[in-house]
Amino acid sequence: MIPAIETAWPLLALTAIAAYALGSIPFGIVMARAFDLGDLRQVGSGNIGATNVLRTGNKPAAFLTLVLDAGKGAIAVLVARALLAEDAAQVAGVAAFLGHCYPIYLRFKGGKGVATFLGTLLALAWPLGLAACATWAVTAALFRISSLAALVAAILSPVAAILLGRPDATLFCIALTVLILARHHENIARLMRGEEPRIGSKT
Predict the structure, then answer these.
(1) What's CA 66's distance to the chain center, in Å?
(2) Residues in Cβ contact with 146 at an 8 Å cutoff, skipping those fewer than 6 apart
(3) Cβ contacts of 158 within 8 Å, gap of 6 or more
(4) Collapsing DSSP states into helix, strand and coil, what is residue 88?
(5) What is the pLDDT of residues 131-177, one digit of tens each?
(6) What is the pTM of this model?
(7) How far apart, in Å, are the Cα atoms of 198 and each of 120, 127, 139, 202?
(8) At what angle do helices 59-83 and 114-124 cross, to 10 degrees?
């Protein structure tokens, strides 16, 4: 369920702090300012992620936000693994994800974490990441609802970890899934009421 603890606890703590700081960088807001799109928190849902950047109508800004938000999670995992070990990689992934969702730079009011979730999984175990991306893509294509696709991909990720031979990543996936569910509580309520906006809408 979890990787063997190989890294000293002080180093794990430092890894978590560094990864959290990296994950806290709000690339959606950075891109909105770079493309002169205004305050992203006053657009659409007010979220700082790529889906809300897309609501501005600027596809390049949304694409860059998606890549950078995914990249910061992936980089945190890859650097921690290269410098330390697999346990540090998983700690870094969770910390970067927390940073995106609760960024210190924005008074802990961050995004939903979907791109960072996918990027982190791709770096942790690329077959697992590809499975999550495919799940998201298929669900989004069928229902045209980004939040639903994210929820399905997250919920199925622990199962995919076991089926794809990475049981050591199961707890990691469960932790991120719980956080995604928490960050999507308003979306879940709208889904239950049939009011969740579809991909491409302006709200």
Answers:
(1) 10
(2) 51, 114, 140, 199
(3) 170, 173, 174, 177
(4) helix
(5) 999 999 999 999 999 899 999 999 999 999 999 999 999 999 999 99
(6) 0.91
(7) 25, 28, 12, 9
(8) 40
